[in-house]
Amino acid sequence: MTSAYGQEENKGFVVDEIIAKVDNYIVLKSELERAYQDYITNGGTPSQEARCQYLAILVRNKLMVAKAEIDSVIVEESQVDNNLQRRFDLILGQYNGSPQQLEAAYGKSIDQIKADIYDLVKEQLVVQRMQEEITKDVTVTPAEVKRFFNKIPKDSIPFLSAEVEVGQIVRVAKVSDEQKEETKRKLIALRERILKGEDFATLARQYSEDPSVVANGGDMGFVGRGMMVPEFEAMSFKLKAGEISMPVETDFGFHIIQLIDRRGNEYNSRHILMSPAPSNQDLKDATDFLDSIRVLILNDSIKFDKAAKEFSDDDQTKSSGGFFADQEGGTFVSVDELDPVIFFSLDTMKVGGVSKPVAYRTDTQKDAVRIFYYKSRIPPHEASLKDDWNKIESFTLNEKKNRLLYKWFEKARQDVFISIDPTYDYCRLLE
């Protein structure tokens, strides 16, 4: 027999405990302990108050999920599936990409692990969607920003890490037509083997360069329109169920694609990816090109931001003149948030310098070279309105959103049933 809050009374031990109920949703003791331990691990001070704060967050999240159901606020399954796959790939990467190691560590099958992650991911996306709906109209005025900052006690003004303005110009090594044709021939040969009866997933694990292939055998799961690159999506909608395409080129390389199933605007496909590798001469050509751009910048024949917009192959930074941006869109980035490779590159440079071309792999796993421009640096300092307006504005906005979310919680909790284990009465969450 299980008690109202989850104890196995007849067996004399606790499997897990339900410590709160919000309509049909529950908070488990293990959820609270995991969140609290993460807080401690990250340097938090152990206290009952902190534990209560995390319990309040968990209850509020369950309330948002319950209210989302009442208010018909939904997230697309394709969005959940894509977030699930990214989360799973990150976890799998911690175990050297080995499903066997992952299953051994969790004591569960891959399908069971994914099922557990699915529920967590879906809840997080629903909570995020609800928070966006509740706070979408919140803005702050300059006067509110100043009031917020002036209310901070002098001995509590945050001390900010060093920040830098750094930009990059990227040149992807252009692959020769001969190498592209060779890659296509390899994929066509694999296609023929599959048509003759060999297993698609087995060949995908053996030959595909998609990192997720270790876990999924090339199966991308159901996704909606706009979730994959255009060339991949277009071919997937052209194919009939079971049909395998000829090689298709995308930014990632060449694919052969098999449509597994389609339902409306969603489709499930699998693929094998191969990326033709550039030759040493291709990499030298890219390096020489950036060397020439670097000389022009150093001679002041062209401004760095103009050169980035005109010549860079990196879509994420070229529109901002090559500069990396923080979460608010500002060009000053905390050194704590920099990619380690960029951080150590800057460590060897002077402010105002432009680096020599450096080889690297892009996010789409292409061989490329890039140059860095170290524009400026703000040393570690106490926050001020003059130097840190954007950050303080963001703090002010978040504080205002949190106040609105608290008011929403106080009102919304009247619409649903909430019960909390008496063990946590000291948190006084329902008063």
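The above is record 1. Record 2 follows with the same two-line structure.
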Amino acid sequence: MKLRRTKHDGWYEIQARCPICGHKGWCRINRELTIVHCMRVASDDYFDSIIGRQFRHYLDPNAVPKTKVEIEMSNAVEKKPDYHLNRVYRALLKELPLSPEHFTHLLDDRNFEEKVVRLREYRTMPTQERYKIAKSVINRLSDNSDLLGVPGFFCQEGRYGPYWTMAGGAGLMIPFRTVTNEITGWQIRVDNPALELDMEGAIKGEILEELPRDESGNRTAKCSLKIQDKILEVILTEKDKKVCYSKSGQFVFSVELKQGQRYWWWSSGSKDNGSSIGGPIPIHLALPSPCLKFWETGDLANNLLDCSEVWVTEGPIKADKAADGLLKPVFGIPGVGAFSLLLEPLKKLGCKHIVFAYDADVIKTPEVEMALEQCVEFFAKETDMKLSLAMWDISYGKGLDDLLDNGYTPHVSTLLEA
């Protein structure tokens, strides 16, 4: 199990798959490997932190896998204040282009208008010569050390000495804006997410190499699988789950080739002189695109738009789309459990009514139901704001953005009266 040291003594960020949610990153485990603070799977035991709500899960010490623990050493530095991040990221905006491929994706797949794409200031993280972009950003600023403490940038030792460059996978970059229009972070929609093996039961395996796609366009890979004492090399295809049962009908194992995580924070916490995106995690406020040309950095959004009612969804692009479809301010948060991060921004906006609008296919899951219950409890204790839930039939669209694109509006049901 790969772990990374955190600021909290005795706690490590899980770099491998979390034993609770199965995802990589953000979740934490103690030194004894008996308690997990999971960011995604809810439990009755939880606490709110600067990176969002963390749920405690207790592991059976006798059932902890006897795997080698690798502690990743980090020379990361503390993240700079918002005003500094905004200054650097706005300089970056002037140096990064938006590729034709990503522009087409936003127009054809996301149904944005051309002028809206430009107003939203999406960018492309290139694959090569990132050090040149970092150097150009420095030239726009006052000092070579201005990139220190800015997530995404890190200092690397080169042939002729140290130099600044940028971390992250190549892909579409989406800016995160505060209530005063400061850009304080980015997410990258990576072009080619890594493949992963999703395995259950008596099986171990690894991906040896990715192969050309099949006739249907699905990704394929050569994999090494260990089943009991046998090691087999097989070719697996995405979306083709293999399940094995015993002669008596009992489940033995399953294996599936899956595309890994598509959206990643632009961060450099694992790099020398880099910085983590956390402490706290950014949340994104989207305003209707006509407001953007008038929204000066430092101005509260409620000076431009009535923010007495604010909508909340997951993800920045979805929030951008919803803001235009609803003509309302919309927050994009990193997950349903991150609602505590909204408290102070909502207070600053003078919000009186919050409408949560999560995807239609996740509203009825136990984890989301529990998160909504905890959300109601949290806001009932901390504020006098009204809380509502937006709902719709999934046949009209999976997400709020899809629903609005299809010409429908959700039904809004009250969760908590003011």
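The chain has nine helices and 25 strands.
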